[in-house]
Write a structure and sequence with these properties.
The complex is a heterodimer of chains A (about 70) and B (about 260).
Chain A (H helix, E strand, L loop, with lengths): L1 E4 L2 E4 L6 H8 L7 E4 L2 E3 L14 E9 L2
Chain B lengths: L6 E3 L2 E3 L3 E4 L6 H11 L3 E8 L18 E5 L6 H15 L3 E4 L12 H13 L3 E6 L3 H10 L5 E2 L13 H10 L5 E3 L5 H9 L4 E4 L1 H4 L4 H21 L24
Helix pairs in contact in B: 1-8, 2-3, 3-4, 6-8
């Protein structure tokens, strides 16, 4: 299926969850904020949340800023 | 940091009137030490997409506990985007303080005052402690006060320029006319400029680049903290000198449309 991750198109084979996508993408997923279709998904919900066709997923983090 | 001279913003009492931005620190451990050694109580942070090429490091692991976090909406080009950033920060991390920074100009990085007003109305209505970063304009500051801002943050000069209080006259007007704390932000390059802002009556100063790119950020953060404290003391110690009142260059009599006595 096709999804958008951090503004980029991405193809995913088979069923997956947000948790799996997060773990596959980053080696240290701690502290990452996940937003799916403009809704924040809590950490404890990530394993239960399937990735669906055309999802817009944002993986965000707090960084230094003025 | 004089006794009985706290700054109260959003129901929180702040003793150290030097606020620090967390951007551009080469070593986050140094940032933590700078916060600790200078006694900084309020820091700004930003929200960004995670770069897939890098292993993300959690900045918040390097911010001492009990520090007040303020989310900077940097990267927002309009009110809607700034609102989204603030909501994400609150919902995911409980950050309730927001520095509204709406910039749609990459050359001068000047804030969009009109979008900032819109954003302030929305976020103040949702219970955020809203600190709008603005180009110092009296009408805009009045609108922000009406909209429920907790302070106003006028720029001293262009972001990252280190040019100090280029907007001094206009910031002074805000200090006199607006019943909100005035936090001078942006362009403060050296501690003496921070002291100058405090001497003229600013309630706090925020700096970032001047500290983070200093050869010794820990000592520079301390220097800023002390300068802000000194400027505050000087402001309180002297009798208030009113300057900057308008003096018309044209006569105030003989207007065409008034009835003659």
């Amino acid at each position: 299926m096709k999804v958008m991750v951090n503004g980029k198109n991405r193809k995913i084979e088979g069923d997956t969850t947000l948790f799996q996508l997060l773990s596959d993408t980053f080696s240290r997923p701690g502290g990452i904020i996940t937003v799916r279709n403009d809704q924040i998904v809590e950490q404890k919900e990530l394993k239960k949340t399937p990735v669906r066709e055309h999802d817009r997923i944002e993986f965000l983090q707090i960084v230094g800023g003025g | 940091m004089t006794p009985k001279d706290p700054l109260v913003i959003g129901g929180k009492t702040i003793t150290n009137r030097f606020f620090l931005g967390t951007g551009k620190f080469g070593d986050k451990k140094v940032m933590r030490t700078a916060i600790e050694k200078s006694g900084v109580e309020v820091v700004t942070v930003a929200l960004r997409r995670v770069d897939q090429q890098q292993t993300p490091e959690n900045l918040l692991d390097f911010v001492p506990e009990n520090t007040i976090l303020m989310i900077n909406t940097s990267g927002a080009r309009n009110a809607r985007q700034a609102v989204t950033i603030a909501r994400i920060a609150r919902e995911s991390l409980g950050i309730n303080w927001v520095k509204i920074e709406v910039i749609d100009d990459s050359k001068y990085l000047l804030p969009d005052n009109q979008e900032t007003i819109k954003c302030t109305e929305i976020l103040a209505g949702e219970g955020f402690t809203v600190m709008p970063y603005i180009h110092p304009d009296l009408y805009v500051a009045r609108e922000l006060q009406k909209a429920g801002a907790a302070s106003v943050m006028p720029l001293g000069s262009l972001i990252g320029s280190g040019e100090g209080l280029q907007a001094r006259k206009f910031i002074e007007i805000l200090i006199r006319e607006i019943d909100l704390p005035v936090v001078v932000d942006a362009g403060i390059g050296v501690p003496s400029q921070a002291a100058e802002a405090m001497e003229m009556g600013a309630d706090a100063v925020l700096a970032n680049t001047a500290v983070s790119i200093a050869r010794d950020p820990v000592q520079m953060a301390r220097a800023f903290s002390l300068a802000v404290q000194a400027g505050r003391l000087a402001h309180r110690a002297r009798s208030r000198e009113i300057r900057g009142q308008a003096s018309p260059s044209s006569p105030l009599t003989g207007f065409l449309f008034e009835e003659s006595p």
